[in-house]
């Protein structure tokens, strides 16, 4: 009898200890949740999708309690990402263009930005001084795109005048004009090694140009409507094009061979960009959806919904942890790449946002808009 009582006491003590540990873990979770809510109020961001993360945390906790006591790796990951996420706020506004600003890009060192506009000009801005330092004039139509070369000494631009032009950053001189497209040139980019320029056009083609000879190297046909965007892969071996025909195509740069056609968007695809490691592509469309694709498989692996209007541009952050998108709904949205959730909405422009870019250190976002302004954003 005495033995039975001792066994019962021992069993009761074990259960009591387990109950106490469970109660302690519950208390810790409640403290974390409270701290997160307080953090949310302090930074005054109303639309953070934190409830979804909290729900995930609780679900993981319940599951872990049924499997084993203690913390699990996924839980720790969620908590870490929650705490370490950067939250951006408006820093500076650049005014000078009298018409829609169509594009904006950082210089390689992040000290300048270049913008293009319906006012037919390209402008270079000093970020620290917060002022315009150069106006490039020469295009005869709206300028759709402009960006720096990898060394920051050149700018390439394209226009409704069907031309591509190269400019000297230091003195603003036009160095060359590339002609060949029979329609509006929508997008233009230097290859990573600076030896080739890729362009896309309303003439339904993508073209590659040799920087040394200023001659067209390859013309890529295959899209059934105008091509809105073209981008090189990080290693320069491939390019991706986005089209009004609702498709995305991946091509070899040397041979011009088409490798994949990505299908999934229900509207015109406006942008497509490689991840920093070249393994993924992110795209956005008139269907208001952002899609992520596996390059090797040539298949979609995720889609992000949240914008209430056309998604005009989307970019990977340098560490590929975050996606930054902009829309005609006047917002910029930041998305967690791993969990596929929206983590912040930025508001500041009074009209649709045309482009976004992220600095090489990931600490600054720049946006251009139909409200004729450029906005700089930095972490809180």
TrEMBL record:
SUPFAM superfamilies xref list: WD40 repeat-like
Keyword Repeat: yes
Alphabetical UniProt keywords: Coiled coil, Repeat, WD repeat
Chain coiled-coil ranges: 22-49
One GO CC term on file: transferase complex
A Pfam cross-reference name: WD40
WD repeat segments: 94-135, 136-177, 178-213, 220-261, 262-303, 304-345, 346-380
Protein's recorded name: G-protein beta WD-40 repeats containing protein
Organism: Reticulomyxa filosa
Lineage: Eukaryota, Sar, Rhizaria, Retaria, Foraminifera
